[in-house]
Every structure is written in structure tokens, then in C-alpha cells.
Design a protein that fits this description.
about 375 residues, alpha+beta, three-stranded antiparallel sheet, 9 strands
Length: about 375
């Protein structure tokens, strides 16, 4: 097999897990495509470890927090306000692929879900905190899981056709239309619809009936309010609408174009193409903060809106100068190093890291402060 194409290396590496008939021994996955050369180390807790910690038997640490610490009024979920979780595709991160969930993001969703529960549930359910945490985890996990499923579809279809278009899809469809024309690519909205369609079964017999209902209602309310690339998910929750949207997305992934000429409705006959890898849970992590993943250089998922980042820089005493080249803007402050921003609508992690370092901040603190504006 020709290993010059990195996608072929990924396919061969996954051959046994995907049950694809590829001769030879699977090789190591490609390294993360990044300008950074240092070894990535992320102190995390895997999904498997977390799942083992969940027990039907109530223990003292699972007792509810003091009532004063739980919200009394509903706090709707807002995935766009904060950075909560993300998926790192194998195509861009090799052995560092997986689902990453921030501790702060998990705690935020816990508060959201608790606000949809009654005071009676909080006071009488001895495992209220544990079950709320489990439900919050599932909401974030399911959304990122479908991103993973789509990459697996791309790999499996490429294995049969020999056409590797996932990178083109990310560049020409996902990134190109996510903010400017989100209706052209509904990946985020489809992921949200997938959560709604599956959260009930995921929580069945794991949490109380009220927490299960609260989780479904909270997600429903979020979908109603969702804007940008997340908008329209509520229209995709029924079976036919969901399958039609997924088939359209399949066409875009296979061709790497916004408006594919061919139809791939026949892919619906092969649902196994959307199966997650057996070891997805072992590659799902709880992350303490963004600074622990800062050296991954993710240009797809870790990004901040330029206009908001400019506001933060201004708050720290910086102002835009007339210097800079065609693609960058220079921001200055007397007695301090200058800051360079690109003219893109969203600033990449490389820019965020440099800005945080100049301001004397952690990457996750800068990201949180910027997204809260």
C-alpha cells in the first residue's frame, strides 16, 4: 500500500478495529499536523474511568450540594457562549485524536440541568449531583460523538472508493460556510439533533425520570434559541428529516464540495459506516483547562471571534496601530510587547496563545473572558 497519502495510513491503522480487510499489520497513526514539535501530554480523566466511578449505590460524595448552590430559576444551555467540548479528528491530530470535555464546561451544563429540576428532586434524590453530572456528560459527549461518526464515515467510504475528501470537506464546506453561510453545511445542527434523538435512551435507567425529562427539555430549549451554525437543529429531529440531512452531508463529505452533483442516498443502506470506533470512550477525556492542550495547534476548533478578542485587548490598554502587513494588524501599548492579530473573523489558537502570553494570561482564561463578552 502507498503510504504517501496520510489518509491511507489512518485507514490501515484502523483496519482491524473497523473490520476492514487490509493485508499487513496496522501501522502507527500519523503524528499531529502542527508546527509544534513537543510531545503532547494532557492530564485528563478518561470516559471509562468516569463511567466506573458512576454507581447506582449512593455514596457520601454524591449527596446533593447545599441548596443555595443550585440555581432556583432556569438557566438555558448556551453552547455558543462558552467553549465546553470539542472533537479532534484523526486527519489533523493522528494519535491525539478524540473527544475533549472541559471540567468548566461539564460543571456549567450541570448547573443548566439542575435549574430544570424541582427543589423536591434536589432534596430527595440522594444521587442528585452524580446523576446530573452523568446527564451533563452525555449531552456533551453525544454532540462530539457524531462529529467522530462523520469522520469514520469519511474513512470507510474512502477505503472503498479510494477518494480521500475529508480534508477538502473541512476546508471547502465546513470551515468555509460554518459562520458565513451555516445553512450550506449543517454538521453542527445535525450533531445537536443527534443529541436530542439519543439522550433519552442514554439516560434511561441511569438517572431519575425527572433528570431525564429535564435534560431533554433543556436541550430542546437550547435548540430553539440556537443561532449560526447550530440553528435549525429542531427541524431535523424527526427520522425522515434527520436521515435526509445526513445523506446530504454524506454527499458533501464524499465530494468535498458545498453543492455535490451526485446523490448518495444509497449510503443509507450501510448504517455501519457511521459506527463509532470501539475504543472511542477510551479516547474521550476530561480536560482541566485549555492550556494543557494549547500545543496541539487546532485551527479548526479552538478559535475566538476577532471582534470579541479586540474588545479584551482594548480592555487591557491596547489600541490598533497603522503598522502591520496585509494579513495582520498590530496592536500596541506603551511599555508592553505588541500583539498581532490576523484579519480573519476568527483567530486561530496560535494567535490566541501569543496574545495570552503577551497579556500574562492562561490560554483558557483568555478564551473564557473573550467568549463571555
Amino acid at each position: 500500500m502507498n503510504h504517501k497519502n496520510p489518509d491511507e495510513r489512518i485507514i490501515e491503522w484502523l483496519a482491524l478495529e473497523n473490520e476492514l480487510e487490509v493485508s499487513g499489520t496496522p501501522i502507527e497513526p500519523p503524528s499531529a499536523e502542527s508546527d509544534e514539535s513537543e510531545k503532547v501530554y494532557i492530564p485528563t480523566q478518561t470516559y471509562n474511568v468516569f463511567e466506573k466511578s458512576y454507581s447506582k449505590q449512593a455514596v457520601s460524595e454524591d449527596l446533593p450540594l447545599e441548596k443555595s448552590l443550585w440555581p432556583k430559576e432556569r438557566m438555558p444551555i448556551d453552547l455558543q457562549k462558552h467553549f465546553l467540548a470539542w472533537y479532534q479528528p484523526m486527519h489533523f491530530y493522528g494519535e491525539n485524536w478524540g473527544i475533549y470535555v472541559l471540567h468548566t464546561g461539564l460543571n456549567e451544563i450541570m448547573q443548566n440541568l439542575a435549574s430544570y429540576c424541582s427543589q423536591i428532586e434536589m432534596n430527595t434524590n440522594p444521587k442528585f449531583k452524580s446523576e446530573i453530572r452523568f446527564a451533563a456528560w452525555q449531552l456533551l459527549f453525544l454532540h462530539e460523538e457524531f462529529h467522530h461518526k462523520l469522520e469514520m464515515f469519511a474513512l470507510r467510504s474512502a477505503r472503498l472508493s479510494g477518494k480521500h475528501s475529508y480534508r477538502l470537506y473541512n476546508q471547502n464546506v465546513y470551515l468555509a460556510t460554518k459562520n458565513l453561510s451555516p445553512s450550506s453545511c449543517q454538521e453542527e445542527a445535525i450533531c445537536d439533533a443527534y443529541v436530542f434523538r439519543n439522550i433519552g435512551n442514554k439516560l434511561s435507567k441511569k438517572v431519575s425520570k425527572e433528570i431525564r425529562s429535564a435534560s431533554t427539555l433543556a436541550w430542546h430549549d437550547y435548540m430553539i434559541r440556537a443561532t449560526g451554525p447550530y440553528a435549525g437543529s429542531l427541524k431535523l429531529v424527526n427520522k425522515n428529516s434527520f436521515e435526509n440531512a445526513v445523506n446530504k452531508l454524506f454527499d458533501q463529505i464524499i465530494t468535498g464540495t458545498i453543492l455535490p452533483k451526485s446523490s448518495s442516498l444509497e449510503w443509507g443502506l450501510f448504517p455501519e459506516f457511521l459506527n463509532s470506533l470501539p475504543h472511542l470512550k477510551a479516547n474521550t477525556f476530561l480536560v482541566d483547562d485549555l492550556s494543557s492542550t494549547a500545543n496541539l495547534g487546532n485551527l479548526l476548533h479552538l478559535a475566538l471571534p476577532k471582534r470579541k478578542l479586540e474588545k479584551v485587548i482594548t480592555m487591557y490598554g491596547y489600541s490598533k496601530s497603522n503598522e502591520g502587513d496585509g494579513s495582520h494588524e498590530k496592536w500596541k501599548k506603551a511599555g508592553s510587547p505588541f500583539i498581532l492579530l490576523t484579519k480573519n473573523r476568527e483567530q486561530s489558537l496560535a494567535v490566541i496563545k501569543s496574545t495570552a502570553r503577551t497579556l500574562g494570561m492562561k490560554v483558557d482564561d483568555l478564551a473564557r473572558e473573550t467568549r463571555n463578552l
